[in-house]
Specification:
alpha/beta, Rossmann fold, five-stranded mixed β-sheet, globular
Amino acid sequence: MFKAKALELFQHQYKHNQVYRSFCNYLDCDPKGVDSLTAIPFLPIEFFKSKTVVTGINKPEITFSSSGTTGSKVSQHHVSNLLVYQRSYLKGFEHFYGPIQEYCVLALLPSYLEREGSSLIYMVEDLIQKSGHSESGFYLNEFEALKNKILQLEDSGTKVLLIGVSFALLDFVEAHELQLQNTIVMETGGMKGKRHEMIRAELHETLQNGFGVSKIHSEYGMTELLSQAYSLGNGIFEAPPWMKIFIRDAEDPLSILKERVTGGINIIDLANVNSCSFIATQDLGKVYEDGRFEILGRFDHSDIRGCNLMVL
């Protein structure tokens, strides 16, 4: 079912997405010969910084943008149907965690709140509203207020989802140590230049000790995708049924590697129906036989092969 839908979507996007078609043609890809998932060309994610990656002619309802340093180009994802995004993140969350109405959602996302165009803020804001919980909401740097709110909710036996960017969660546990029973702590990654980068195991150990929990959950998403994968506490991510991960050879980006071998992460996201569903990310990882995967870091820009493709 997934294969058939992905191949159908490839043909549609090859026909109606000018940027993607030009990329495929540059690779001498004959769309008639694409009969497997690994034969589909994966568009380098950098194209979202330099091109307007859209399928069809509908005007965007919203444009999401990535964060970036001053003067640097940022990725832009032009979304012509917000309902697709809303359905994707809601069904994705509930696939792993159950109905959002069961949670009070607390968000500690200062770096995202302080700029416009964040798809993560859009998603979390909608989840906050859909939770229907009067105590759900965003926190900027109000650590004392957040601590008191968490403790109040813990005392009442309320299920809490605390979702935060890594550096802010680290700042919080440096100020407050807790012992939580009913709270899921979920990091979205990213130091955003606020702290030195940490390997996931070190980050999770620090947060586990600070929050007094046995595991830290993780969310894996990006501006260029309308779907998210989740790790329920062991550093291994699982994608929703409409999303699939492949690993490409770092030296030969057109070659797909076998399971348990480290390389670049390629993603098929069927929710990206109106942009491009076939993305070659800048992340490094490996995939397992059951489709779950690990994130092991990012490419250094000097390690990215095939950059001449960006002249398209």
